[in-house]
Amino acid sequence: xxxxxxxxxxxxxxxxxxxxxxxxxxxxxxxxxxxxxxxxxxxxxxxxxxxxxxxxxxxxxxxxxxxxxxxxxxxxxxxxxxxxxxxxxxxxxxxxxxxxxxxxxxxxxxxxxxxxxxxxxxxxxxxxxxxxxxxxxxxxxxxxxxxxxxxxxxxxxxxxxxxxxxxxxxxxxxxxxxxxxxxxxxxxxxxxxxxxxxxxxxxxxxxxxxxxxxxx
Length: 216
Ligand SMILES: Cc1ncc(COP(=O)(O)OP(=O)(O)O)c(N)n1
Ligand SMILES: Cc1ncsc1CCOP(=O)(O)O
Ligand SMILES: [Mg+2]
Description:
The protein is an alpha/beta fold. It has a single domain, classed as Alpha-Beta Barrel (TIM Barrel). The chain has ten helices and eight strands. Strands 1-2-3-4-5-6-7-8 form an eight-stranded parallel beta barrel, surrounded by five helices. α2 packs parallel to α3 and α2 runs parallel beside α10. The site of magnesium ion has 4 residues, from loops.
């Protein structure tokens, strides 16, 4: 199985790591390698905010090989065209990140993930369009992003009972609060702060998340 197919198919809940919103790729390379070496990570999303296209390109060139060397799928946030052009394993699109159907056609067998907030309707639409995963959230308060939509475990239970398409939970998830999400059926837990802001460093954050998932 290649990194792309591994990134969205799983029997058990797995960690979906998202980068900090701002980073210097040359300096971040070793930090990322240490985090990915600390435990199981299914996918890495490059989520740079306020970065130029050239900056994103450079970050992909430097960081994607680090992920691929460890069989971690590399997903680009916000831009399906650039993800395709740069050979990423897929793209994650929000509700205002362009044409989802066009992205599905462009990415072919690469991964397309779609933000569905806390909406059953958006999730059904994403599923019909051929999304490889749907993302629900935010489940908990977060400092990483200003969030408008708040999800509960009921949407994970509803989705997993009915659909085979994997679901990702996001928003303020930590080792301390993730148990109910895993038990409700989340296929992936997407995290930023729980890893990059862990008091003992990112490697400890990855270990703590994996231990909590296993214990749930
Ligand atoms: C896995 C995952 N889920 C949700 C999001 C949020 O995407 P979006 O709503 O487009 O917001 P931004 O991340 O672009 O600020 C995500 N990135 N990844
Ligand atoms: C990108 C995004 N979309 C909804 S919440 C969120 C932030 C996730 O970061 P954290 O894991 O630090 O709450
Ligand atoms: Mg977006």
